[in-house]
Amino acid sequence: MIGLWSVPLLFALPLALGILTLLATPAWRPRLSLAGLPLLLAASAAAFLDLALSGPGIYRLGDWPAPLGINLNVDGLSAGMVVMTAVVAALCAAYARSYLRDYPASASFFWPLFWFLWAGMNGIWLAEDIFNLYVGLEVMGLAAVGMVALRATPQALAAAMRYLLAALLGSLAYLLGVALLYGAYGTLSMAGLQHVAADNPTTQVALALIILGLLLKTALFPLHAWLPPAHGGALTPVSALLSALVVKGSFYILLRLWLVLGPEVTPAFTAQLLGVLGAGAVFYGGWMAWRQHLLKQLVAYSTVAQIGYLFLFFPLVTGTGAEAARLAWDGTMMMLVAHALAKAALFLSAGNLILAVGSSQIGHLVGISRFRPLSLFSFGLAGVSLMGLPPSGGFTGKWLLLHSAILSGQWWWLIVLFLGGLLSAAYIFKVFRMSFREGPQIDRSVPPPLTMDVAAMILAASAIVIGLTAHLPLHWLRAGALLGGG
Amino acid sequence: MSGALAFAWSGVLLFGLGLFGFIMHRHLLRRLLAFNIMGSGSFLVLVGLAQDGRGVDPVPHAMVITGIVVAVASTALALVVFRRWYRASGRTDLPEDT
What pTM does this model have? Predict the structure, then answer.
């Protein structure tokens, strides 16, 4: 078992690096972090290898049994998320290393927060009980708020404050739900809850509180108001981390708990309602993204829209046949991973374009295609995945969701998938139209460092490649999944 | 109603009061206080409800201790952000949605 040492390292390493970078002098913080990246990448790869070789399992931290110790759940989904986080975070870190040279004051606190963020995310992916999910959620959330505040401008501070208030409200609702569940059943483990949870008002109220809290933290329409200023206003590598990974944390918890409790306990319309809210997010987010004048705000609203697709999972997996549920699961996983890669690439290349023209206005991108073709190319590749054009990961994900919708006879979700794709195309091409237009505005551009272009390019290319080799990640992500078929 | 259940109901009441304050107030310090009252409410539910009919159970106590640590950390972070926001803008509330 390789994972015997790798699984606890997934927390121990980022926490240790977080503390080390906090104690180190500012000059040493990026160096220590870059030294730590390969270690954590290796630990993530080892955890994944362990899953591949010996199958899903429960890892007991410190070998203590469950109520006293902490159980870690290594299955396909959690290992997949660990690897996705490692890839995206490592590339964002490489980008941040170059990017933060222009922000020396913010840079010194970026690295400790970065590591705490990573520790919190790994905590969420691996937690087996609902209370440790709460702890992971808080570690991740507080680090994320700190990262939004790094820029220290009044706008960034207001965005961070609003984000913090939304996050706190969300996690308290979640915690109250956990308290009710523990009071009713005396267990926190998800496997245990699946056995004992009954269809009664206590469970329903608890689950309603948990769902509401998590929806607020995932920024599902109409609870999304805090997201665009926080994600769009932060430093570019922070925006990429938040949009690509952090919103997935709360969605992941929602998905897990839904599979454990949802279909048995909630009234039939709940899943449809979540889907409708998702559809609202797709339309509203896409429309708002198209109306933005600032490049990063456009990308941030695109996140609001893309989160909507993930919520089509609930109506497609609940009360439908086994085959439709499996397709919905595969499609959602694909959308999740593809969005993480594509959105990180989109933010990083948007950051490169902003650096190149020295302005965050989309209107100032006129003529940039002559100067920064590579940055624009990674922006376009990531856009292809977001629009859902073949052969990208976004296409495969939508294709699977589409099949699932047809199979379960819920044709109305097809409209969402089609119109959502058109809206994404509208806002991506808005950027392209500007960049290919010739105008007198600029006659020079500042080339960003090569690392930053390469990081964005790798992420964008992965979002495409994952669509070509979709069967591989899906095979692993499905391993050990709690999928009852609705 | 047993004593434990009374604690749980007081917890729910506190949570509700806190939520009301959190939504109604604009001053950030008041909202932070309201958040802490909500937190105390859910801790009370956690300890009270779990002990109803099962005797003394150490697990919720451990959870509440962890929860208090989290609440202290969040409050500290909120205070830091709030102070910097106040110094940068001179406001004690957030500008309404743009």
Answer: 0.93
